[in-house]
Amino acid sequence: MATVHEMDHPLIKHKLSLMRDKTTGVKEFREAASEIAMLMCYEATRDLPLADVDVETPICTARCKQVSGKKLAVVPILRAGLGMVDGVLDLIPAARVGHLGMYRNEETHEPVPYYDKMPEDIANRTVLVVDPMLATGGSIISAVTYLRSRGVTGEIKLMVLVAAPEGIDAVLAADDNVHIYTCAIDEGLNSAAYIVPGLGDAGDRIFGTE
Ligand code: PRP
Ligand code: URA
After folding, report:
1. Within 10 A of 169 (CB to CB), how many other CB atoms are there?
2. Which of 86, 116, 175, 201 is catalytic?
3. Omega before 197 cis (within 30°)?
4. Residue 175: its pLDDT value, please?
């Protein structure tokens, strides 16, 4: 069953407020995106399976826990998703990274794919898609559809900073094994399909291309 998780950690809420502020500059915006991604990754990986292992401490043998099961892949949706990759890799340095390039057509708001490069064994990995904005949901649905076509049959975790209710509904209707992690669920979309109040154009603010 698909699920939605809204982050309630005070540090995440605080950093997101900094990102929403239109006077926040590129450096601070980029740093906050990466820091929030790390904190969210902690929550999004809460249910990773564990296995018992014996570890020799300097004193004796200890029965300990280690993460087991499928390896992880983080898949940023270019461009803006790149701003969340380092935060995830800070926590899971061995994760593989697949890239999916797409941009929204300004008139139709439909995603236009332009690039993809996945780890060869993507079908056998737990996939964490990262993109700061879930607006109409078109880009994330396109990413999920692509990953399914590449043989990813298990759950797909979607980490976004801000989501619109319309986008959440669309993603949940498109696939029943996705799990959305978001820092905020905003009011909705404006006539240009931007999230209100949102934080503006995430890609432009991360890369300074406004
Ligand atoms: C933004 C954002 C998402 C998409 C969300 O990307 O990073 O990928 O829009 O909108 P949707 O839910 O309506 O599809 P954009 O197309 O601006 O490209 P960019 O990251 O290269 O700036
Ligand atoms: N893409 C963005 O970067 N911001 C929005 O509000 C919607 C789509």
Report:
1. 12
2. 201
3. yes
4. 98
